[in-house]
């Protein structure tokens, strides 16, 4: 469904990602790696927020290597950045409504679904997004992405800075959304243990290179940790 060929990317003179090749089907693909490994850079590049230095991207059988970010969201790819992923001065409902600018289903239908997935957001509809807790803010960011009715969701460290209870709730909801919608997800995370519970396959990045790509089921924690420390 989404194919990444020999992707390289970086900032200015700094090359961060080198020669990554992988594909994603209808699954949860976890991108794991230590702080600084290149997870955020990878998701930014896939979302076209950052240009590719080399390589090619294909989505649904079509080249999208140079397709602009907004066009990709119209074509079913939703991106939740690690930071700055909500509009703090808008309410919860207004933030969610922005997601409905993409797609054609009635907004209220989509809102109802997101509020059912995240009852906490329903309780805080009129609250300013900037006054939400960290966990609620992440729920809102994911909720807004789901409002776009995406086929592929790019999620960058949704668990960062959250308490374990929030992480459990958030991950359960992500798994539930995936099941209900048959959605593919690329999930970048530092929280390996939790992520392994919902991932189908795992890609480990270290210093911008791919050190492992394997089925989550057959991957031991030991091998995973070894890949981390290369
Ligand atoms: N805007 C930027 N300009 C230059 N270097 C950056 C920028 N953002 C990230 N980097 C560098 O890219 C590398 C990978 O960072 P990042 O993709 O954020 O990793 P991760 O998300 O895995 O923690 C790091 O060495 C980081 O310092
Ligand atoms: Mg990151």
CATH overall fold name:
Rossmann fold
Intertermini distance: 30 Å
Order of helices and strands: EEEHEEHEHHHHEHEHEEH
Mean pLDDT: 94
Helix and strand content put the structural class at: alpha/beta
Outline the biggest β-sheet.
Answer: 6 strands, mixed
Number of strands: 10
Widest sheet: strand ordering: 6-7-8-3-9-10
Q: Mind telling me the CATH class?
A: Alpha Beta
Count of DSSP-assigned helices: 9
Low-confidence stretches: none
Radius of gyration: 17 Å
CATH architecture: 3-Layer(aba) Sandwich
How many structural domains does the protein architecture include?
1
Pfam family, one: ABC_tran
Family: Belongs to the ABC transporter superfamily.
GO molecular function: ATP binding
Protein name: ABC transporter ATP-binding protein
Task: Explain what you see.
The longest helix has 18 residues. The protein has a single domain, classed as P-loop containing nucleotide triphosphate hydrolases (Rossmann fold). 37% of the residues lie in helices and 27% in strands. The protein is globular and about 45 Å long. 39% of the residues are buried. α3 packs parallel to α6 and α6 runs parallel beside α7. The chain is an alpha/beta fold and 230 residues long. A six-stranded mixed beta sheet has the order 6-7-8-3-9-10, with helices on both faces. A four-stranded antiparallel beta sheet has the order 2-1-4-5, with helices on one face. The model has no long low-confidence stretch (mean pLDDT 94). The protein binds adenosine-5'-diphosphate and magnesium ion (MG). Adenosine-5'-diphosphate binds next to β2 and α1.
